[in-house]
Amino acid sequence: MFAARSFTKATRQYSTGPQGGQSKQFYIGAAGALAALVGGYSYLNKDSPSGPLPMSTPKSDRIGALQTPQIALTKDGFTNLTLKNVKKYNHDSSIFEFDLPGSSVSGLEPAGLVVCKAADDSVTGDNGKPVMRPYTPISTADKRGSIDFLIKKYDDGKFTPHVHGLKPGDQLAIKGPIQKFKWVPNTYEKVGFVLGGSGVTPGLQLIETILNNPADKTKVTLLFSNKTPEDILLKEVFDDFKKKHSDQFDVIYSIDQPAKGWNGHVGYFNGEFLKQHLPAPDSNSKTYVCGPPPMMKAISGGKTSKGAQGELTGVLKDMGYKEDQVFKF
């Protein structure tokens, strides 16, 4: 708008009283100014790395979209982010969208997560210290201006009731990104995911990264377990993945108990079922596991109290998998 205002002012000065030989200079100057204005407008209306920008986007935001984005978070300390919007997903889960400053990004790369706590440290554990919980966003790493989380409420939990009690304008303290490992395309020929409940979000991050990269030919199989059909999170997303990437991605849903109208798998994952669907345990494959503690114990064994991978046990060990062929989120 500054260029437009300057150009308008210049034309007004000349149009009120052009003097003889000045008229030619005016036409040349005005034409140059018009070309610069049009060129600048075209530049600012170029698509950002994240896609086309709406015509209503302010110029400052257009300039920001063309620049290398700033990283909003830091793993060295907590940043208070303001809740922008809450969208109910199902009976016990909601999507929470938090503002990031300007056109900044979260900086998360797969496989990465953040750690959250109450902004005022009001949620404490039995030891009196603030309760902290790890979460994996469902928004992509390059999303500008906000970060989204799909969070399931556990009524007997210490932290999720606090998150679900937040209203737009409230804040949550977030630290990260904390990267568990760096995904390298085509490291494996096949990967498998055994996920349960809200443990689906780390899997989504990595699966989406693979499928969104045309150069990554890794084949992906997702086995996703839930209590009921209504508990299945992000089913519409995975169904869309399967539709668009049928030669690369497959998903199989399972519920604990039979339900009316359900034609999929019923019951817990056993060795026979996993052997049928997961990639074989070899150097060209990797299997990722995430879910509630009972599921983790049965499939792979849990992680240590300090978050280390721990010993591989459970069904996967019985099937011949080695510790370097399995990763526990």
UniProtKB/TrEMBL annotation:
PROSITE patterns membership: FAD_FR
List of residues binding FAD: 133-135, 150, 152, 158, 201
Species this chain originates from: Wallemia ichthyophaga
Signal peptide: none
Annotated InterPro entries: CBR-like, Cbr1-like_FAD-bd_dom, FAD-bd_FR_type, FNR_nucleotide-bd, OxRdtase_FAD/NAD-bd, Riboflavin_synthase-like_b-brl
Keywords linked to the UniProt accession: FAD, Flavoprotein, Membrane, Mitochondrion, Mitochondrion outer membrane, NAD, Oxidoreductase, Transmembrane, Transmembrane helix
FAD-binding FR-type domain: residues covered: 76-184
GO cellular component: mitochondrial outer membrane
Region span, Disordered: 1-20
Compositional bias (Polar residues): 8-20
The keyword Ion transport appears for this protein: no
Subcellular location field: Mitochondrion outer membrane
One protein family per Pfam: FAD_binding_6
Cofactors named for this entry: FAD
Keyword Membrane belongs to the record: yes
MF terms (GO), sorted A to Z: cytochrome-b5 reductase activity, acting on NADH
Coiled-coil regions listed: none
Official protein name in the record: cytochrome-b5 reductase
Catalytic class of the enzyme: oxidoreductase
